[in-house]
């Protein structure tokens, strides 16, 4: 069976005819298989949803307990028969519960990677390459300019700034799902000996990580602390929070950006970031190319980001590559 017969593109998103389900549809559908809990992949309104248990918990927290008529939890690596196809959820290394979706039918294997990263992360299961015939890959940072350094080195910049500016609260801009908890996990792993303080919007996702026994550094709600107690402390907050009224009670806040986009100086300046840290939950260019080699697929479909550059590189490797140009994908971390 040809890969394009296993997986087709419809207005709602990628569709598997052999089992009658969509993967990460951008709107509510009858049956959805979801790679992870970020809103640009996990829409509300599906009649039935299949995802990992952590992704289900994240979806319920964001969309409400009644957002889906039926939810089925999938275990990583376990085979599930759906119609004429067998599917498996394989680790994607992106955030808690994130998975690649493998579909096997008619002697053909297709892998939809969702969002993924190859860098180490103590808060989620590491990405596992799966040999396949068709590989659907993101390309958020799909340009050769994007090469992300190890996270530990970026945290050393943060520690140095805390020593240099001990009277300033260091407000690290992070997304509520994945980035915040990765920073918390890495701080714990590298022996940081103080708690961190969280903006209220980060608490629900952090509690879900703890419910799934993910080790995180101790934390307290920032709003519960006296202003003076936050001098020289790490405060995690949404990227825009340092420009919002919420930040007025912080002592001399120093804006820290934690994103793969911080490699571009103009991005940091436009966001009024004083200390840019290159921290991404996506693959950089080298990791994307490495993964394409490892999965050994002859057909590559590219989505979500710098599609054309990665397609061009794949074609230069002799692969059948094309951009998907799926609408409805959000700005990545």
TrEMBL record:
Xref: InterPro entries: MBL, RibonucZ/Hydroxyglut_hydro, Xnuc_lig_assoc
Molecular-function GO term, any one: RNA endonuclease activity
Listed Gene3D superfamilies: Ribonuclease Z/Hydroxyacylglutathione hydrolase-like
Superkingdom of origin organism: Bacteria
Record-given protein name: Putative mRNA 3-end processing factor
């Amino acid at each position: 069976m040809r890969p394009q017969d296993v997986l087709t593109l419809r207005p709602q998103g990628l569709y598997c005819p052999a089992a009658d389900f969509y993967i990460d549809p951008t709107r509510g559908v009858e049956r959805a298989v979801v790679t992870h809990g970020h809103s640009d992949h996990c829409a509300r309104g599906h009649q039935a949803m299949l995802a990992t248990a952590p992704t289900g918990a994240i979806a319920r927290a964001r969309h409400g307990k009644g957002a889906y008529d039926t939810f089925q939890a999938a275990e990583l690596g376990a085979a599930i028969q759906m119609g004429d196809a067998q599917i498996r959820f394989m680790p994607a290394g992106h955030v808690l519960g994130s998975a690649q979706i493998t579909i096997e039918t008619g002697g053909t294997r297709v892998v939809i990677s969702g969002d993924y990263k190859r860098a180490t992360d103590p808060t989620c299961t590491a990405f596992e390459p799966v040999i396949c015939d068709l590989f659907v890959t993101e390309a958020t940072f799909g340009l050769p300019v994007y090469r992300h350094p190890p996270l530990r080195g970026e945290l050393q910049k943060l520690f140095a700034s805390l020593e240099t500016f001990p009277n300033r609260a260091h407000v690290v801009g992070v997304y509520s799902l994945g980035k915040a908890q990765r920073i918390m996990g890495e701080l714990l792993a590298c022996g940081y000996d103080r708690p961190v303080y969280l903006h209220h919007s980060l608490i629900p996702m952090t509690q879900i990580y703890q419910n799934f026994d993910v080790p995180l550094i101790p934390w307290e709600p920032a709003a519960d602390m006296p202003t003076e107690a936050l001098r020289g402390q790490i405060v995690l907050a949404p990227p825009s929070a340092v420009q919002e009224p919420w930040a007025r009670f912080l002592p001399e806040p120093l804006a820290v950006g934690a994103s793969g986009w911080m490699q571009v100086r103009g991005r940091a300046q436009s966001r009024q970031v004083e200390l840019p840290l290159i921290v991404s939950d996506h693959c950089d260019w080298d990791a994307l190319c490495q993964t394409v080699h490892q999965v050994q697929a002859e057909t590559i479909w590219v989505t979500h980001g710098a599609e054309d550059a990665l397609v061009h590189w794949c074609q230069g490797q002799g692969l059948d590559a094309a951009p998907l140009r799926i609408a409805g994908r959000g700005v990545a971390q």
